[in-house]
Write a structure and sequence with these properties.
With about 180 residues, this protein is an alpha/beta fold. The protein has 2 domains: about 5-115 and about 155-170, Flavodoxin domain (Rossmann fold, 3-Layer(aba) Sandwich); about 115-155. It has 7 helices and 8 strands. Strands 1, 2, 3, 4, 5 and 6 form a 6-stranded mixed beta sheet that branches. It is elongated, with a radius of gyration of 17 Å. The chain binds flavin mononucleotide. Flavin mononucleotide binds near residues 11, 13, 51, 55 and 80.
Length: about 180
């Protein structure tokens, strides 16, 4: 079975998962900008990973644009965000990024990444600073919000090779 893993990563969390997944599946690995889009149909399993930015999967249009020609193939998308891994998180991501028709063709996984403010571009630093101010103003922040605030001072990394197990099993399963 020929497998390709394509990823887009701003601060390295998605890249780490993509590397683990590609190593596990002995797959070809490409950063999105260098992906051989004309040759996607050569692969049986196509895996795309992107970081989560305001619930959107970074660069997922790459897969959505090519979905029609991938009919009959196994198409997997994984999103890496700072949020804890919960069923409702996966539902929000699924409905925010994919139409019902796309959801039929794509299997989505959420792999918890982390947060590293230091590695953000000036543009994203500015956005996250505004979010920080609004979190700081909250009278009763949730535990998740408190964790997010703490992460500005000390990067958090929740990536774990354990987290890819379900995706690997799905990718390897006979259809
Ligand atoms: C502007 C901005 C928006 C973000 N939005 C979300 C979000 O909606 N949900 C989430 O779980 N994480 C969010 N994050 C955290 C990133 O998704 C997280 O750091 C991710 O692991 C980054 O992956 P990457 O470094 O591979 O791009 C956001 C981060 C930034 C900078």
């Amino acid at each position: 079975m020929k497998t390709i893993v394509i990823y887009k990563s701003k601060t390295g969390f998605t890249k780490q998962y993509a590397e683990w997944i590609a190593a596990e599946l002995k797959a070809d690995l490409f950063e999105a900008a260098r992906a051989p889009l004309a040759k996607l149909t050569d692969y049986d399993v196509i895996i795309y990973g992107g970081g989560l930015y305001a619930a959107g999967i970074n660069g997922v249009k790459l897969i959505k644009r090519n979905l029609a020609k991938l009919k009959g193939k196994k198409v997997i998308v994984f999103a890496s965000g700072a949020s804890p891994s919960r069923a409702e998180v996966l539902d929000v991501i699924r409905n925010h990024n994919f139409t019902p028709a796309e959801q039929q063709l794509i299997r989505l996984f959420y792999l918890r990444g982390g947060f590293d403010y230091r590695k953000l571009s000036p543009f994203f630093k500015a956005i996250m600073t505004v979010l920080k101010w609004s979190l700081q103003r909250k009278k009763n922040p949730t535990p998740d919000e408190q964790g997010m605030l703490a992460a500005y001072d000390r990067p958090v990394n929740f990536t774990s090779r354990e987290n890819i197990k379900e995706l690997i099993a799905y990718a390897e399963a006979e259809v």
